Amino acid sequence: MEIKKITDGLSVSGQIQPEDMEKLKRRGFRAVVCNRPDGEAADQPTHEEMEQAAKVAGLEFLYLPVTPGMVTEETATAFRQALTELPGPVFGFCRTGTRTTTLWSLAMAKEKSVVDILAATKAAGYDMTGVARRIANGGVTPTDSVEDAKHDVVIVGGGAAGVAVAASLKSRKPDLDIAIIDPADIHYYQPGWTMVGAGVFEPATTAKTMGSLIPRGVHWLKSAVAAFEPKNNAVILDGCRVVKYDRLIVCPGLKLDWDKIEGLVETLGKNGVTSNYRYDLAPYTWELVKGLKGGKAVFTQPPMPIKCAGAPQKAMYLSAHNWEQAGVLKNIDIQFMNAGGVLFGVKDYVPALEKYVERYGANLNFFHNLKSIDGPAKKATFTVSKPDSEPTEVTVDFDMIHVVPPQSAPDFIKVSPLSDAAGWVDVDQVTLRHKEYDNIWSLGDVMNAPNAKTAAAARMQAPIVAENVAADIDGKGPQAGYNGYGSCPLTVEKGKIVLAEFGYGGVLLPSFPKWVLDGTKPTRKAWLLKEQILPPIYWKAMLRGKEWMIKPEKVSAK
C-alpha cells in the first residue's frame, strides 16, 4: 500500500488486498470506503471479499462504486455524508486513488476553496486541475475550451490489439506522435490461461508489466477513459483531463459481467467454483481438476458474443483428459451447459469435437444459461430456453464448476456516441473504420464486426487498421480489408489440438496447406504451435509490429 493523506480524516490509495485490512487497523484507521466497481480487472478482489476482511479486522466498510470518469454530484454527496457518519479516520481506495480523491474534491466544493482543494490533493500526489475546472464551471467539464494534451493518434486500450496496432503503425510512420491510454499495470496473455488451468503453463508466464510492452516512442497515458467527444476530436479521462487527437483507434477489449450471475462473485475461487477467464482463478481450476476423483463436474458457456468461443469447452476437454490419464474418468459425471444450440459455430470442426465428447462421456446440454449459483450448497440453477418452448429452470448439483461469465462492451463504450444499439463500437466490417466518424477506427473484442473475438483476430486486424490509418494520413482511402479471420486452437487433449481457423460466414481460412496441418483433425503439430510457438510470436512479434504470416487483403480506395 502507498497511503496518501488528503486530510486528517481521509487517506487514499490504489487497489488494496484483503490482507491489508489488518495493517490499516494497526495504523489507526476505523473505516474503509471502496470506490472501485467489481470486475474492472482480472485479479481484482470483489468488494464482498474486502468487506469480510474489514469486518474481521474490526473496520467498518462502505461500498460506493464509481465508474471511471463518471463521478456524479449525487455520488460526491453520498461520499461527503459517509465521511460525516463513518468513524474516522477513513481510508478510501479505487484503482489508483484518483476516483476517491475526485469524490472528496467535489464533496468539499461548498466547504473549501478551489485553492485549498488543489493544495491538499497536490500534496498527496493527485492532479485535480480538471476537477477544479469542473467546480469553477458549476459542475460542467469545459472540454471544448481546455486542451490538456494533443496527439496525432490516440489509442484507447493497451491490450493485445492496442499495443499491436501501435507497434504496426509506428513501424509504418516512425515520426508519428502516438499515445496509448490504459490504466492497467499488467498486460496479460489471456490465451495462456486455458493452459494454466490444465497445469501446462505457469501463471507468471502469461503476465508482463505494461511499461515493458509499450512500443518505443509511444506515450503511455496511465488513466481510464471516462467519455468520448468525437465531434470535438477529444477523449475525456478519469479526473476530467482532456486528450485531443487527429485520429482515434478504439480497442479496450470487453467486460466480463461476473455479477450478472446471482451468487457467483461471492463464491468464485472457493467451494469448487472456478474460471479460466481470470488470471488468479486459472490455477484454482488446475487445483480442482487434480483433486477431483469422483462426482459431478459442470462446465458452462454463456450466450454469444464471448471472448474465445471455444474456451469453455477447452476447459472441459483438458480436465477430462487429465481424469482419463489418472484413471478416474469413469467416476466423474461431466456436464457441458451451453446457452447456445450448437457445440461449435463452424460445422467443419464439429465432427472431431463430437468424438472427444463421446470419448470422455460428456453430456451436452444446449440452451442452458447459468442464472445463479449457491457455492456453499454446491448448486447451480440454469434457465433452459429451448426453441418454441416456454423457458424453464433446472438446478444441478456439482462438485466442481467451471464458469464462463456473460460478456459485453465496457460501460464507457456502451454510453458513448461510438456504439451501436447493442453497445459495441460500430465499424465497417472490412475497413474497420467507424461508420459515422471518418477519423476513428476500432479493432479487437470491442467492435461489432461479426468475427470471433480472439487474440488471433486482433493479430490480423492490427496491421489492417495501421495500414488504413497510415493511408488516411497520406490522403488516401482504405488500402487493406479484413476478411473476418479468427483462430481458436481447441485443446481436445494434452498433446493434440483441433486448430479452427475461419473468417466471416464460417469460411475456412487455414494458415497451412492441409498436407502440413489439417485443422479439422486433432494434431500434435497444432499442440506444439499453441504451446511453444504462439506465446513467443505474441510477445516478440505481434506486440512489436512484426507482421509474420499476415497478408491483409487489399481493397479498392474509395
From TrEMBL:
<dbReference type="InterPro" id="IPR015904">
    <property type="entry name" value="Sulphide_quinone_reductase"/>
</dbReference>
<dbReference type="GO" id="GO:0070224">
    <property type="term" value="F:sulfide:quinone oxidoreductase activity"/>
</dbReference>
<dbReference type="GO" id="GO:0070221">
    <property type="term" value="P:sulfide oxidation, using sulfide:quinone oxidoreductase"/>
</dbReference>
<protein>
    <submittedName>
        <fullName>TIGR01244 family protein</fullName>
    </submittedName>
</protein>
<keyword id="KW-0285">Flavoprotein</keyword>
<dbReference type="GO" id="GO:0016787">
    <property type="term" value="F:hydrolase activity"/>
</dbReference>
<keyword id="KW-0874">Quinone</keyword>
<keyword id="KW-0809">Transit peptide</keyword>
<dbReference type="InterPro" id="IPR023753">
    <property type="entry name" value="FAD/NAD-binding_dom"/>
</dbReference>
<feature type="domain" description="FAD/NAD(P)-binding">
    <location>
        <begin position="151"/>
        <end position="264"/>
    </location>
</feature>
<keyword id="KW-0560">Oxidoreductase</keyword>
<dbReference type="InterPro" id="IPR036188">
    <property type="entry name" value="FAD/NAD-bd_sf"/>
</dbReference>
<keyword id="KW-0274">FAD</keyword>
<dbReference type="Pfam" id="PF04273">
    <property type="entry name" value="BLH_phosphatase"/>
</dbReference>
<dbReference type="InterPro" id="IPR005939">
    <property type="entry name" value="BLH_phosphatase-like"/>
</dbReference>
<feature type="domain" description="Beta-lactamase hydrolase-like protein phosphatase-like">
    <location>
        <begin position="3"/>
        <end position="109"/>
    </location>
</feature>
<dbReference type="GO" id="GO:0048038">
    <property type="term" value="F:quinone binding"/>
</dbReference>
<dbReference type="Pfam" id="PF07992">
    <property type="entry name" value="Pyr_redox_2"/>
</dbReference>
<dbReference type="GO" id="GO:0071949">
    <property type="term" value="F:FAD binding"/>
</dbReference>
<dbReference type="InterPro" id="IPR029021">
    <property type="entry name" value="Prot-tyrosine_phosphatase-like"/>
</dbReference>
